[in-house]
């Protein structure tokens, strides 16, 4: 489908996202300011969530020099025209003739008698700034325009029939205006800087925005040794090592490579940048540089993602000094890596341009979200190019993969399109934020304190947060936003059922695991989760540090399926740890330990009485859930979910100390644990034979009911649905209990 559209005419897209990551307080924001030509303010200015800076600089495509842009000249409406005008390539005429009947855009092209530009003209005229991802200022007050969020304005908009503004004649006139403008002299690609806040609380939300279509800068404090302890900070969940710069470097590299699926070998590239050179005596700078990068080299010597790492640049900057020559060296490195990136100059279909322009104008006017019907109408009424339904969905999926929109094609979410992705940055920042950024109002402080202590926020409190001036534009779409946050496992519904009737109770509370920082200090693992009562398996990840986003989102998914266990008056919900009640006899524990996520099934009396169906179902559920979480980050139309998983499964012996890989276990008829010197078959409990899917006819738990199914199930079989589709399970079990 995409190839057909490209054959009808295309343009080259020159955009690069530079994602600046790293530990907190290492100078990331200062570095970005220097790169875009801003002054660096005195004192530390921590970043709340993500700061996005675009339209400020670009790269001359011929000379490869950096072009700085005056913010006052940044135009969010003309940039797509400019891009297409300067790089448009007509498709093969015979191919156009063949596809005229199927491709409305071809018919429009045939009718267009406006002469193409000469090659000479193309080489002389080009905008200083390019942007096919237009946005307004990054401040929340501007991004979430109050004018567009009022109920009255929304009602008025919905009453009006949407009409096209982009006729072919108007496109021609605007393009002529671009040509006549004296400002547009160069052919420039665009650089967009994403400045990621370094506090731990943000690590679950950052990964949502990571993509292989980017260049990553991992920043660290060069005035400190890599093994020097970072004071006043907890290490990552399940990590018993001392928090050091090396741990944070490992975290960021592992996060990037976990959440950016490899579509091209060695892409994305990760460039290390050391800061705080000004704290080192001038005569010692080169010695320090050599030491730092030898430590980085050693840290990643055997790392599986080593081919993604740029280790030969050895950049060491003073991120407060515009005159530092190494800032220019960093720019040269960014330029080189950008031009080498396979997505730089990627061809895009001309047929998409009219709809891109319509969306760009709405974003520039402050619109954040469109219904799918509104998008379809924008497309249908176009006088330039109309995409058929299949092409429109291809457009939405591809634009999502580029990070220009947010479109999640699931039953609950496909009715809306977020046309300004900055909205999601603001949504997450509204409640997932570091303590230093908590609102000053006393009632708001109390909401955030409760959420931090318990990991729970109620619906009413969330509405109160969104009723603040900066976030009021979220309220008209609150149900849609809630569903997105649940889909991303940022929020987890605290589902409750009436004990007497089995009826599902309204959801009022939501878990926010990434806001929980307290560690497990209970005696549950020592006194209850013992070898004689439990079995264990491990999901083993590459590297030494698991990105916190993954276990946090796994915990969220678990919370939506099972209830948190109460133990000695405390809920077993902690940072990187959760205990869950499956039934009266079985409990589930999920926790992080090093580079493993451990799964335990704990029986009330004996591990020998653990029901294999339950163990198998829980295991399959969590495998599917983790693959789903990983696939969301990897989701592009180029990267398929069948690619290699970032983890593998290992089974423990009966003492829960030794592990064997799933591949080895399935080849062995009986595994002999060498350390404990006995044959172990616990792994079989995790892999129950699935041939028999129904209870015997005389099963006392059999419940007959109708659920658009021809088969008859018992309550235990219904529970198994939970492992594949928690919503279907709850609805099905509810129907069963009502009979």
UniProtKB/TrEMBL annotation:
<protein>
    <recommendedName>
        <fullName>C-terminal of Roc (COR) domain-containing protein</fullName>
    </recommendedName>
</protein>
<feature type="compositionally biased region" description="Basic and acidic residues">
    <location>
        <begin position="95"/>
        <end position="114"/>
    </location>
</feature>
<dbReference type="InterPro" id="IPR027417">
    <property type="entry name" value="P-loop_NTPase"/>
</dbReference>
<dbReference type="Pfam" id="PF08477">
    <property type="entry name" value="Roc"/>
</dbReference>
<feature type="region of interest" description="Disordered">
    <location>
        <begin position="90"/>
        <end position="167"/>
    </location>
</feature>
